[in-house]
Design brief:
3% strand, 139 residues, 69% helix, mainly alpha
Length: 139
């Protein structure tokens, strides 16, 4: 039973729960960014660059020709699918930028204004007496 109690204490710690929530939200957020890139950004970029779909850009490695769609070319043999890589790289850059902005905003919110200088601690009577003796000896 000792191990179960130890596991329960570990699982209930705030850090573990925060991590689990972060992973779940991150996975959902990743899907949103993926959809934004594939459904909104890449079609516009493809249109601006000649109306081609980036996801179907590939170099055939088994002499299958470039006239096939990417899925069909993969069935026919190995392909160098650089269009898919460009799309995924763009997903990563957008996601990293958004996370960077979120962390930056949180760090700004966490910054506390410098605390006002606290009053010096009261000096003990002995120190006050020694200072008075010093001052009187100087005179």
């Amino acid at each position: 039973m000792g191990m179960m109690q130890e596991f329960k204490a570990f699982a209930i710690k705030g850090n573990v729960i925060d991590l689990a929530v972060g992973v779940i939200i991150g996975a959902a957020f990743s899907k949103i960014v993926d959809s934004m890139v594939q459904d909104l950004i890449m079609p516009v970029a493809g249109k601006l660059l000649g109306g081609l779909d980036f996801t179907n850009y590939y170099l055939p490695l088994n002499n299958q020709g470039t006239h096939l769609a990417l899925a069909e070319a993969k069935k026919a043999g190995a392909v160098f699918a650089y269009g898919s890589f460009i799309t995924i790289l763009l997903n990563f850059i957008i996601l990293a930028f958004i996370i960077f902005q979120m962390v930056r905003a949180l760090n700004k919110a966490k910054k506390e204004e410098p605390a006002a200088a606290a009053e010096p601690a009261p000096t003990p009577e002995e120190v006050v007496l020694l200072r008075e003796i010093r001052d009187s000896l100087k005179k």
